[in-house]
Design a protein that fits this description.
Number of strands: 0
Order of helices and strands: HHHHHHHHHHH
CATH topology: Endonuclease III, domain 1
Number of helices: 11
Mean pLDDT: 95
CATH superfamily: Hypothetical protein, domain 2
Structural class: mainly alpha
Largest sheet: none
Low-confidence stretches: none
Helix content: 55-70%
CATH architecture: Orthogonal Bundle
CATH class: Mainly Alpha
Distance between the termini: 40 Å
Number of domains: 1
Strand content: under 5%
Radius of gyration: 16 Å
Length: 190
C-alpha cells in the first residue's frame, strides 16, 4: 500500500493509512469543508478519545462526543451534525461489520459493484461520495476487486485529478482543487 498523503501531515496520514475506519470517517467529513481538513478529522478524534475504534465511538456519550468534536480545532465546520454522523457510521460498522470498517470492501471478496452498493448504504454516503471513496480504495488503498474502476465511474479513471482519490502530494492536491473550482464555476454558469 502506498504512503497516503491526503492531509499532508505525517501523523494524520499515517492514521488514515493504518486504520480503515479513519479513512472512512475522513471521507464522511469531506463535504462543505477543505479535503485535507476533513481527512485530518479522524486524527483529532483519536487524539481526544485515545484511539479510533468503531465500538468506542459508537458507545461514546453523544453529548460528550459532540463536545469533543467541537473543541478547537473542530473536526468540521459543522461539528455537532458531523459528530452525530460519525457516531451513526461507527454504529453501522459495529452492527453490520463487527466493528471492522475494512470488511465493507473485504468481507466475502466483493467486486467493485458490490462494494459501491455497500458504501452507498452507509450514513452520509450518497452516490458521488461512494464512487469517490471506491476510487480512493482502488487507487491508493490496495482494493483490487474486479470492476472497481467501472463502478467508481469517472473517479476511477487513471490520470485524473478530480477528487481526494487522486491526491498523492501537494501538487496533485492543487490540481484537484483547480478541477473542483472549475467544476463549480461551470455548474454556477448553467
Amino acid at each position: 500500500m502506498p504512503n497516503l498523503q491526503l492531509v499532508q501531515d505525517r501523523a494524520a496520514d499515517a492514521l488514515l493509512e493504518s486504520n480503515p475506519l479513519a479513512l472512512l470517517i475522513g471521507m464522511l467529513l469531506d463535504q462543505q469543508f477543505p479535503m485535507e481538513a476533513a481527512f485530518a478529522g479522524p486524527k483529532k478524534i483519536a487524539d481526544r478519545i485515545g484511539g479510533l475504534d468503531a465500538e468506542l465511538i459508537a458507545g461514546y456519550d453523544p453529548d460528550k462526543f459532540v463536545a469533543l468534536c467541537s473543541e478547537t480545532p473542530a473536526i468540521h465546520r459543522f461539528p455537532g451534525s458531523m459528530a452525530k454522523r460519525v457516531q451513526a457510521l461507527a454504529q453501522l460498522v459495529v452492527d453490520e461489520y463487527g466493528g471492522d470498517a475494512a470488511a465493507i470492501w473485504t468481507s466475502g471478496n466483493p467486486d467493485g459493484r458490490e462494494v459501491l452498493l455497500r458504501i452507498k448504504r452507509l450514513p452520509g454516503f450518497g452516490d458521488q461520495k461512494a464512487r469517490i471513496f471506491l476510487a480512493l480504495l482502488g487507487k491508493q488503498y490496495g482494493y483490487t476487486g474486479p470492476g472497481w474502476r467501472e463502478a467508481a465511474g469517472d473517479y476511477g479513471k487513471d490520470g485524473t485529478h478530480m477528487s481526494i482519490a487522486d491526491v498523492r502530494d501537494q501538487a496533485s492536491l492543487d490540481q484537484v482543487r483547480s478541477f473542483k473550482k472549475a467544476a463549480k464555476a461551470a455548474a454556477k454558469a448553467k
